Amino acid sequence: MPKAQTRLQTLQVCKLLQCVREKNKEQIEKLTLNGTPHLINYNDPDLGLTALIVASKANDDEMVEFLLGIGAHPDVMDLKGKTAAMWAAEFGNVECLEKLLAAGANMTLTDLEGKGILFYLITPTERHLKCVELALEHGANVNNVDKEGNPVFVMACDLSAENEKLCLGLLKHGADPNVAQTKSGRTPLMAAAGSGGTSVINALLEARANVNALDAKKNCAGHLAALAGQLQAIKLMAGYNADFNVIASDGGNPIHYAAQKGHAMCIKFLSQRGCNPKPKNNAGNTPKVIAKDQGHKEAGKEIRKAEKTFGKTGKNNDPWILQLYDWTQARQSKLLQSLLSIDVEESGKVTHAEFLDVMAAAQCPTEEDELKKVVSLCDKNREGKIDYNDFFTAKKWVNKNFVAAAFEGKKKKKKKKGKKGGKKGKFKLVMPICVQDEGPRMFGGAPPEMYIPRHVHFTDTGRFDRDAPPKHPLQDDSAWYLQAPVKTYVNINEAAKNQDFDSMREAFSKGVPVDTRDKFYKTPLMTACAVGNIKVVQFLLDNGAAVNARDNFKWTPLHHACHAGQLDVVQLLLENGAEIDASTINGGTPLTRAIESSRDSVVQCLIEKGCKMQTENKKGLSPMDLAYNWADIRVFEIVQAKWDSLPVAKDKKAKKKEKKKRPGTGEKTDTPQALKMPEEDNVPLPRKGSILRAASALAGGLDEQEDITYTPKKAWTAQPTTQELLQEKEVKRERFGWEVDFPDFQMPFQQNVSKKVELFEAEDDG
């Protein structure tokens, strides 16, 4: 590994690498012939790159072949000990790796960390898999362990679910299935169990991997599979006589780990296969407590069942039966092939003797007498033959709660429709939530229409402020020497919520509609009413805001105002023509919103204005019902007083429909009067221009007046003084209460809900 040391060598190596990147073959030949001897294999002083490594990283197979032809060695390493083949493998450059292998690249070399080429081929892509095949064909070490004690096979099994072919290929070429990491003690089976590679786990178990091996923390493969929720991996390990009742160093068994993540079916299987669901871990928690703390209801349910049934035997669930069942399920494909080879007639049945011979040849762990009991259970008709498909389903000789079908989860049954005239079910209101797109961008790439330019007041704060404004518009010349702020945008509803009059005023002056809606169809007026800001409400109404607009739930601004519980806002809306009995999508009216907020003044105002009392929402609740459920005693008394004063409604069934009389020919009918068109105002029309008048004006020597109006570059924005801000705070406290200045302030509706919750909690504690 010659490294460039002198100034001349460094310059020549850098020039050579540049020519390789530019694919300048003529210049490369000149440098190698006339430059430093063996320059083609020199490393640059920074990273140790060689010409061959640069070409391999760039996947330039033509350049690689050219460099090898003029004397480049394929095994020259960089400063980290990586060869060109390792770099090509890391990037999945198949063509370059083929050229390097043809030139005799050594596949057993390792870098300074002890990593061979296979460490750089763990990435799960097709190109990397092709490189793996090439490396294995040319003798790559499948049992390579780096200097930190990490075997390449364990690292590959960490990605067994995504990279099954790599793991199976390493195992096929002689990888040790029981190799373990030096520090952690993790084996390939533990790594595969945690990642969920079922085929890799099956291959490892067939290769006699130790299913009961423990790592440094005394975790077995069952612990890691339970933590990851890999039920199929647990089933395969059960078929190879795995012991699941193992306590780790933290005092937890696999059920503790499964309860932590809420894997209910894993808990059920583990408890049936001998894992105790009752012990406590080192923290003093049982699996049931862990599942409860994590909020896993299904897992807690399975743990409670397991605690009741653990250690008890029933019909067809003896330990030897479960061992035989798990053993057959893990080897089902091989056993089925053997039975099909015997069943020449393809009848699906074999004799008892043939079946016992197949099981004996497969080294069945069950005693012959016990196996004969299973055969007799499968052949209840005493035909002398056994249906091997029925044997694998195991419905005749294994309890139904222990077979594979019991862990697939229950299918939801379709609910039967009630008969005509049956009991009416509870009303469920279907609530469609309409959401519209933000819309296209405006002219010039600006955001959608709902976003308006934010007005930013900038000035020289050392000269002017809100209490010392400029005395003349030309006095504030800050715009000439200060950098203008970056143009930003704000949602028009946010501007209404934050009382940003300047931004809204500029937007409306440029043609932005005052009723611009956000994605929930809410207008600025609705937002202002929802926060109870009467100044913004008045401003928007003065600019022509629609007082009866509706949002996605068909709420009007009056609904939002009543929900906010601000009497002055409600009165202002009613004065401007708000519909007092507007109905929402669920039948709610402004009166019901005021009752829910428990604001007696707003309720009294709506009643005095003549709102309807005898209404019902979609759940059949009247304002009186809502007052009983939601409001305090003051609101309830107001609603009850009005309710009692209403006339008793007559029975609708007693009313007979009056037949509409057909208008006779002799009856008098009111003849529609002709509509009178409004008289036009007698406004004098402007005189039309003429050539003679223009000529006489020119002859008279009339001069055009020059406009000398000066517009400042940046006009001063009127700012409220400190005294005005303090007065505004006082008004806000009078309207909303003294809590409005605190971060935990709640609007009336939320206050009412919080009080109800506190009352219910007090009743429960009492």
UniProtKB/TrEMBL annotation:
Instruction: Give the EF-hand domain ranges.
Output: 366-401
Write one Pfam family the protein is assigned to.
Ank
- What SUPFAM superfamilies does this protein's entry cite? Ankyrin repeat, EF-hand
One of the entry's Gene Ontology molecular-function terms is: calcium ion binding
Q: Which Gene3D superfamilies match?
A: Ankyrin repeat-containing domain (1.25.40.20), EF-hand (1.10.238.10)
Chain positions covered by the region annotation Disordered: 650-686
What keywords are annotated for this sequence in UniProt? ANK repeat, Calcium
Keyword Calcium on entry = yes
**ANK repeat ranges per the UniProt record:** 47-79, 80-112, 184-216, 250-282, 520-552, 553-585, 586-618
Q: Which InterPro entries match?
A: Ankyrin-EF-hand, Ankyrin_rpt, Ankyrin_rpt-contain_sf, EF-hand-dom_pair, EF_Hand_1_Ca_BS, EF_hand_dom
Q: What is this protein called?
A: EF-hand domain-containing protein
**Gene source species:** Elysia crispata (lettuce slug)
